[in-house]
Design goal:
Length: 462
């Protein structure tokens, strides 16, 4: 009977019951590089810069339009310092397609408004507008760091970094003490914590030489001018992002998990990057996409809706006299994005049989979307069949998943925008606890299996 069940039933297994001690060590070693990536890549610009540095160490060169390309070439295209495409040219012609791992490197955060700095009651604040889907209350009373770029009128740029060094000051959004919070706690969370109320406290010391109002604002502006050479008008052409001031750390007494900001989707971005850095000369050209703007619908010139991806791949195709449409029609894309992991503290939002679980490997989502699969590319059965074969060959531990109960909610990824290009696409990625919170949780083994999944993709030749 046991043999019959083994043959006929689909039985998920915890990855720790399957892997060898050697592979467990490889998994934990992999997580050390991932934690370092997280600490150096808290924004999309930082992710691009750090990823390019790693790629150049492995022989990747910037792509120049019209350059000769041959099998084994390692190229990257930096899209406005906010998205990145990397490619290892394969031995097969581009007309036979490419293998793409597409992740995103933006995460929910707080962006400064164009005119952010003000003073009230002798305290200085930054006004913010939140980016992506957040629970506002989670961003109150936690330490924050500030990163970004200021473009000056002379055409030069200034990089801003506050809070990343051990002796740097940090920033915060204040909350109301419980002794005075009776009325606040009667409100719904959305009423008690509003977008316009997410104002970051940045100073309290008045400037002795300034008379009248805005003396604290003068102190703050003087510090910013001395440190970065900017004036208040320069905020108008700035991209400044406040993010949680947390370092990536092992989580749990058994160190089996990683706690950090930005697992969505840097857990998959790092998997795609690490895998392509190790890819030598594949049969089909391997492409790693690190896209921006996924958290707000993949919009804009650096999002997955942009034709910058067509420009890069189209340029490679033109050099080989291949139609881009033919290349896309024969390509395969793994939309490498996270999903929710089943949380026994909140079982009511998940259908346990079909929800991803921590430590069960990378999660395949045939569809995402919400309600009746709205907003999903919904991969074909044949596509999932290919992925099963691919993962079997690559020794990948995986699980099937969906994003919560029917009618409970849902979500989307870059998959549908890849599918619109006539590219065979399916979602797969790391299950996450506390997704979109300032501090998210992932399993080390799920991250490692997602990396193995992308490696298997890059070697796929059918």
């Amino acid at each position: 009977m046991a043999d019959k069940k083994e043959k006929l039933f689909y039985q998920q297994k915890n990855a720790y019951d399957i892997i060898s001690d050697e592979e467990k060590k490889a998994c934990y070693d992999y997580s050390e590089g991932y934690k370092k990536y997280l600490d150096n890549c808290k924004t999309e610009r930082m992710s691009v810069k750090y990823s390019i540095a790693l790629a150049e160490k492995e022989g990747f060169k910037p792509y120049v339009p019209g350059m000769d390309i041959k099998a084994g070439d390692r190229l990257y295209f930096n899209s406005r310092n906010k998205a990145l495409f990397l490619a290892v040219i394969g031995t097969k012609p581009l007309s036979e397609g490419i293998n793409i791992a597409a992740a995103h490197i933006d995460s929910p955060r707080l962006d400064l408004k164009p005119v952010p700095l003000y003073e009230d009651s002798e305290l200085a604040f930054f006004k913010t507008r939140y980016y992506g889907g957040i629970k506002k209350y989670q961003w109150v009373a936690i330490p924050l760091e500030l990163y970004g770029t200021v473009a000056l009128k002379d055409g030069s740029t200034v990089e801003v970094s506050i809070g990343d060094k051990p002796d740097d000051p940090q920033l915060v959004i204040t909350d109301l003490l419980p002794h005075l919070g009776a009325d606040q706690m009667k409100k719904t969370l959305s009423e008690a914590f509003t977008g316009e109320g997410l104002n970051i406290l940045i100073g309290s010391r008045p400037d002795k030489e300034t008379e009248g109002s805005d003396r604290v604002k003068m102190t703050v502006m003087s510090i910013l001018n001395e440190k970065f050479g900017i004036v208040e008008e320069d905020f108008l052409s700035a991209e400044l992002e406040a993010v949680p001031a947390y370092s990536a750390r092992d989580l749990g007494l058994d160190r089996s998990m990683v706690g950090a900001y930005g697992h969505d989707d840097r857990s998959c971005a790092y998997a795609g990057l690490a895998a392509i850095l190790e890819t030598k000369t594949p049969e089909k050209t391997a492409v790693c996409v690190l896209a921006d703007k996924e958290e707000i619908g993949s919009e804009g010139i650096t999002g997955m809706k942009s034709r910058s991806f067509e420009w890069f791949i189209g340029s490679l195709c033109d050099k080989k006299s291949v139609r881009l449409e033919d290349c896309f029609a024969n390509s395969f894309c793994l939309s490498a994005d996270v999903c929710n992991a089943f949380d026994p503290n909140y079982p009511e939002v998940s259908e346990k049989r079909n929800n991803a679980k921590l430590n069960y490997g990378t999660a395949i989502l045939k569809f995402t979307g919400s309600r009746g699969k709205s907003g999903s590319s919904d991969a074909c059965a044949e596509t999932i069949g290919k992925l099963r074969a691919m993962f079997e060959k690559g020794g990948v531990i995986w699980q099937m998943a969906e994003l919560g109960k029917v009618d409970q909610g849902g979500g989307g990824t870059v998959a549908k925008f890849m599918a619109e290009r006539n590219i065979e696409t399916v979602d797969a990625g790391v299950p996450v606890l506390s997704m979109h919170a300032p501090y998210e949780v992932v399993s080390k083994i799920d991250c490692y299996m997602t990396y193995k999944a992308v490696k298997a993709l890059y070697l796929y030749n059918s």
